[in-house]
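Agenda item 2: adenosine-5'-triphosphate complex prediction
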Amino acid sequence: MERTFIAIKPDGVQRGLIAEIVSRFERKGFKLVAIKLVVPSKEFAQKHYDDLKERPFFNGLCEFLSSGPVLAMVWEGEGVIKYGRKLIGATDPQKSEPGTIRGDLAVVVGRNIIHGSDGPETAKDEINLWFKPQELV
Ligand code: ATP
Ligand code: MG
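Presented output:
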């Protein structure tokens, strides 16, 4: 069954949005197969966002991701990669539709509270980066 990597970033955890965000995935009907709270190192954040290393905001983005606890999760279900991105909404919360997580709960792109894998390959890579096989149920 299809799986995706979802993470609540330090701003989402700090703002107390864990239950709100987890419940949206649960209510949709997706299945939680792994979850843990971690403070990633900056080197780890750089690995996670490796595809963005040429972008001007890369350093700030990695500093931010490693600035506090991140709730790392794996969710499973038919179409979960694409639909998970739909639940999350557009990257820039100014452009995310109301009803999406970023649309309802975030204001600026640098503090958009949640990450979701953008395709089957990145989902596989990100799950392997963040979790050991025995951490998945
Ligand atoms: P994510 O990978 O976190 O799920 P995304 O796939 O919607 O987000 P990406 O293009 O992968 O968007 O960008 C990764 C993250 O980098 C964004 O979530 C955002 O926090 C940050 N980011 C993207 N564009 C900008 C920007 N112009 N300025 C500052 N931060 C940005
Ligand atoms: Mg992305």
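Discussion summary: The CA atoms of residues 14 and 69 lie 8 Å apart.
Owner for follow-up: CH.
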